[in-house]
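Table S5 (text form). Sequence records supplied for joint modeling of the two-component complex.
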Amino acid sequence: MERVYNFSPGPSALPLAVLEKAQKELVCYKNTGMSVMEMSHRSKMYLEIIQDAEKLLRELMSIPNNYKVLFIQGGASLQFSMVPLNLMKKGKADYICSGEFAKKAIQEAKRFGEINVVASSEDKVFSYIPEIDSSKFNKDADYFHITTNNTIYGTRFRTPPQTNGVPLVTDMSSSILSEEYNVSDYGIIYAGAQKNIGPAGLCIVIIREDLVTGTPNNVPVMMNYKTYVDNDSMYNTPPTYGIYMAKLGFEWLKDLGGVKAIQKLNEEKADYLYDFLDNSKLFRGTAVKEDRSMMNVTFVTGSEELDDKFVKEATKSGLENLKGHRSVGGMRASIYNAMDISGVKALVEFMKKFETENK
Amino acid sequence: MERVYNFSPGPSALPLAVLEKAQKELVCYKNTGMSVMEMSHRSKMYLEIIQDAEKLLRELMSIPNNYKVLFIQGGASLQFSMVPLNLMKKGKADYICSGEFAKKAIQEAKRFGEINVVASSEDKVFSYIPEIDSSKFNKDADYFHITTNNTIYGTRFRTPPQTNGVPLVTDMSSSILSEEYNVSDYGIIYAGAQKNIGPAGLCIVIIREDLVTGTPNNVPVMMNYKTYVDNDSMYNTPPTYGIYMAKLGFEWLKDLGGVKAIQKLNEEKADYLYDFLDNSKLFRGTAVKEDRSMMNVTFVTGSEELDDKFVKEATKSGLENLKGHRSVGGMRASIYNAMDISGVKALVEFMKKFETENK
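The corresponding structure-token record, covering 718 residues in total, follows.
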């Protein structure tokens, strides 16, 4: 069976080499006589896996020693609550509303405190990153929240806002490990695994040590960062297999040359696709040029009918999951780390052909 | 590589047939051209998997129509908070303290309301199920909580307590699907997957419809049962691969003849091991006979030194993870659904040999 090119926004394509390694080791991992899925999370053999995963991520992202790496369940959506529940001391936070998930994060945080939306791009269907005016910042905010990459509308922050000592928290689900980030710019980075890390069911949280303190006693134990810090993410059974898959992914990325190397490849892929879009007479990108995402490329033909036809015919040609998010329509090609340039080239070839056939 | 007999209490052994099927399908699932891990959770191909999983579980446990089946992350430990956060309306609940996890559930519930511990077996290291005196029940309780099977100390409730209309909630993590239960006896059944269902990172919640109501607005969206009910467990990305593995496990169990059939096999396994213990001159079971677990068999030699020696030598013979929980010592053989009678026989053979050699 031939593999398709999978442009799904998440869960999304994983590197073939990672899948093949996992397949080989699935029934018996190394000389242990059992599957990773069957290992006690407290066994020596499993501890090696989770510790390696953390070590590799620290290396790949140059995570400073005063940051903790936590393995948590519940996806980024659980972080939408955990961030305010743990960080709100004064009960105030600043948010940038740059997309659907940013909006959900804001909605959720409002349960727990006073939220100041510093800037929003909702007026133009989130097709740009809003201008940020620091005079609108709340100096008393417990934290400042952004969504680094906007999966649905295909935009991204190129540089994080300067928050003058207020801890910057970011949802980095759809761009973590895709380009170099300076971890020290952030108080918390969190990311659901199912885009650039591994299978769904794991969320990585990178948190500056001094922020893990003073969480009120009425916060559920599983929502308190301290529970994870104090127990090396093993207060209860972590998602052991997901962490193993993440480890394989980190190894793959390291072998490839690390984040600097993948960033170069990602730039090539995105440039290739955007260049085509900018010169096409049928297709056009929907995000403002200077804010374009490197991971999620959104585009339309201008006709809903043609969009539908395109998605259907692409699927038949082994180019899958190109339909835009149900809230926005059009097309979206998610070209995460695991998508090879050959997939992007195949997509562009197909788009050229489609353009010729549908003049 | 030969597989070992894995007596781990969780994550624990999975059926070899399930692992082999997963291995075969890992890189490409059927004719989809992708791994299950790479599928969008909203794709038709994945919806089939999650819907089949639910259908199979409903069939296996004869779950009535007025119960919802939810797929949640965070393990049973997250349920320790979700149950009180969702069910407490008057702020009161009754709990039975029959083991370490029951104790944790109580500890956690105390953050959210007034907890009445109706009975406890902590006085004798949780080696029995306490007598339950219904005059101690709080008639105003929002719910009544038990832990059906005690993984650490090896005891179990043979019949659930009669709670006179107060919803009975149970942590069934280590005995779900091991014997027939009448779902209608319970308001909520929850179970971490990593013992009798599939890999860690998935928790199954079976909840009576009328209990999904009136959760206060300050409860995090991911901790509100209604979020899962209203979105078919897809408010955000569920642990897709874990659910797929669970589905394979349910299929395996159905092929085997369902819960009635596995119960018979489990009874045989447990009887075989307990019979040996009752006749041994070296080993003895630690749980009171009438409350013995069918899943977790706890035993000691009476000498810590011999216990250590036993565990070490057993490991060398391919009988792994027999060490008792760190809080109690001794030995524990977890013989969940996936443990074949051949494993139990191999263990008993080894115990006989050890007994002869260490008279």
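Note: Residues 25-255 of chain B form a domain with the Aspartate Aminotransferase; domain 2 fold (CATH 3.40.640.10).
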